[in-house]
Amino acid sequence: MPSNLLSTLSLLGILVAQSCGSPSHPSAFDRSHFSEADTITRDVAIIGGGSGGTYSAICLKDKGKSVLVIEKKGRLGGHTETYIDPATGIPIDIGVQIWHNVSVVTDYFKRFDIPLIVSGSDSNPNITISQGNYDFRTGQPVNVTSPSAAEVSAAFAAYAAQLEKYPELNNGMFLPNPVPEDLVLPFGKFVKKYHLEAAVRTMYQYNPGLGDILTGPTVEQMRVFGLSLVSQLSTGFLTTAHHNNSELYTKATAELLSTSSLLLNSTVTHSIRPSSNSSHSSPTNTTHPIQLLVSTPSGQKLILAKKLLITIPTRPELLTPFSLSPHESHIFSKLINAGYYTSILRTTGIPSTLSLSAAAPSTPYNIPALPGLYGIQPAPVPGLHIAYYGTPLSPSLYTASDAEVRANIIAGIKRVQAANPSVFNATEPEFVVYSSHAPFYLQARARDTQEGFYAEMYALQGERRTWWTGASWRAQDSSDIWRYTAGVVLPGVLEGL
Ligand SMILES: Cc1cc2nc3c(=O)[nH]c(=O)nc-3n(C[C@H](O)[C@H](O)[C@H](O)COP(=O)(O)OP(=O)(O)OC[C@H]3O[C@@H](n4cnc5c(N)ncnc54)[C@H](O)[C@@H]3O)c2cc1C
């Protein structure tokens, strides 16, 4: 059959589906509408090729399973982003920076022959970066009284003692039932209750993008700041020796493309997932009951898979092609999120050896209100600075427009310039790169967590032949995502394959 006729037929299939009011009308998935080349059969289809999706694909492949990663962007890596400075060739990581020194991390990098080092261990001893605290809303410097190292480590010891009460939290959002009051206390109150004040600014700096850390439920802080991360504060985190964290994803891309296991610039438009009361799983599809229509640069494909693994943020607005059941929609619609944004700027007027942290003069722990800058630090290329910006938690998927974020970053820098002419040059800062990571840090409200939200969400694992991983399920932390994926998710995906 000529390919233009095929594509007309497959288009008609979709039109039929839409005109029937059902985005996943079975006729759109009729195999006879697709050429053999456009019909792809795999053990597991994986949606999203960031940290969770790429790790899952490689692990499943290593277990001899066939996979297909469907990634909407033209590259793998998700929140791992590396800008290569064209003049010097120096890589600048503006997304994921560090990992825990644990076997799930070291084994993964070893598999790709990518050397890791302790972060900061190869810093140039001749360059000293000084640090200043500034209120980006006024431009004024802020005098932050830092606790002593002994006070910080005592506070983290006290915090670790609290974490030890909940050992299952090391493996995921496995909360005791009933959920203890402490876990849903606003973190600021938890800090006071257990005298953790000296740890707060460190936690704020290591866990940005979370929203207001003092008003959010304690368990959302513990989710990233678990025992594993706390222990890395003393032993040191790992980073790539080449200071190009995207190296992992460049190598994974080559491997997955060479085995026809990856569709870049591609998205699922419609899907059929079986359910006990669904009429959509026809007997012919019992071995590969997951059916996906995927829009790719080389036309529409039909994907038939035994199982589906979704790794993208689980907001219902982003999951419409997956025909959520009312129960799934009900659960995911309870999630709220913040926004997190990074960028590289030139001509900032900031000295190239000065790193600026956001601070407020009269708030608890000098933590500034959101939305606003977290800080601006020198990039490894002289003359460039990396800015980090966050927005508060909100039920809205996107809490600020990119134009607004860009304008606020520039305004913050200019306020600091204007208020401190002896330190900063008055310039017109320019964006070299800007990247939105919104929606970021999906999480439940305290009330929903107390009512068993996470147990209810985790009970979806494996339902409708669908498994889930990524930050929405574990934490905004790759090491923990990989541990959760390897220990909790993949055993279920592999069962019966
Ligand atoms: C600036 C920044 C710095 C960070 N630093 C660290 C750090 O140092 N260490 C650390 O461990 N963690 C860090 N994180 C947290 C980081 O989010 C996690 O480590 C991890 O990347 C999350 O993995 P994920 O798979 O859930 O999401 P992602 O890595 O974002 O992957 C999701 C992927 O799905 C794709 N996608 C989205 N929608 C669709 C769709 N409809 N169809 C197909 N594909 C889709 C996206 O393009 C993306 O590639 C940082 C995050 C940010 C934003």
UniProtKB/TrEMBL annotation:
A Pfam family matched in the record: NAD_binding_8
Tell me if Signal is a UniProt keyword of this record: yes
Domain of life, per lineage: Eukaryota
- List all membrane-crossing ranges: none
The UniProt keyword set, sorted, is: Signal
* Signal peptide positions (record): 1-21
Q: Which InterPro entries match?
A: FAD/NAD-bd_sf
Q: What is this protein called?
A: Amine oxidase, flavin-containing superfamily
